[in-house]
Please model this.
Amino acid sequence: MEIVIVIWLLLLLLGVLALAGLALPRDVRRPREISAWLAENAEQKRAEADRRSAEAVECVRYAEEIAVAAHGAETTAERRRTECQQAQARVEECWAAYRTADAALQRARRAAAYPVRESIDHADREHALRRAAQAAYRRGDLSDEQLLDALTHRNGWDPHLHPAEQELLLARAAAAHRLALYRAALTAEDAAWRASDIATAAVRSLRREAAAATARAEAARAALPRDEPVPGGYRQLRFRLGSHVRRLSAAGAGDGRILTSGPSR
Model:
C-alpha cells in the first residue's frame, strides 16, 4: 500500500514538473535560465503593480481637484444667486421710488396749472430753490449732476421762477432720476441673472465631471491588490483611495438643491 502511494506521489510530481516545463519559454530549460526567467517575471509584475498604483494615485488626485473645483463652483453659484435676489429687491425698490416720484410729478403739474399769485422777491425764491434741491438730493430724488445744476442755475434751473413752477421742475427732475435708477437696476439684474446662469452651468458640468472622476478613482482603487503581500504599501493606498472615494461620493450627493435662473419680475 505504501508503495502505491509513493508511486502516485511520484507521478503527481512528474506531472507538475511537466506542466511547469510546458509553461516555460522554449529557450528556458537550464536552472540558471529558469531562475533568471522567474526573476524577470517577478520584476514585470512589480512594474505593472507600480504602474497601476501610479494610475490610482493620479485618479485620486484628479478627483480631489475636481471635487474642490465643484465645491468652489457651488459656493460661487450660491453667491451669484444671492446677488440676483439683491438685484431683484433693488429693482422693486427703484420701481416703488419711481412710482412715488411720478405721483409727485402729477400733483406738481396740477398745482402749476393754477398757480397762486404771490409776491416773493427773487432772493427768497433762490433760497427756496436751494433748500428744495438739497432736500430732494438727501432723499435720493436728484443725482449729483442735477443738484449741481440746480445750485448753479444751469440747464433750465431758473431761481426766478414761480414756486409752483420750481416745484414742477424739481418733480420732473426727480421722476427722470428715479426712472434712470430703475432702468439701471433692471440692467444690473439682467447681468446678475446671466452670471448666475453661467455659475449654475459650471456647477452642473463640474458635478458630472466629479462623478466621472469618482468612478475612475473607485475603479482604480478596486483594481489594486487586496490580500496578497505586495510592495509599495498598496494596503495604505487602498485605504486612502477608499476614504477619498467615499468623501467624493458624499460631496456629490450631499447638495441636491436646484439652482433656478431668470428674473421673476
User: Anything to note?
Assistant: Residues 15 and 21 are 10 Å apart (CA to CA). The first helix runs from residue 2 to 23. DSSP finds six helices and no strands in the chain. The helical segments are 2-23, 31-113, 122-139, 144-152, 163-223, 234-254.
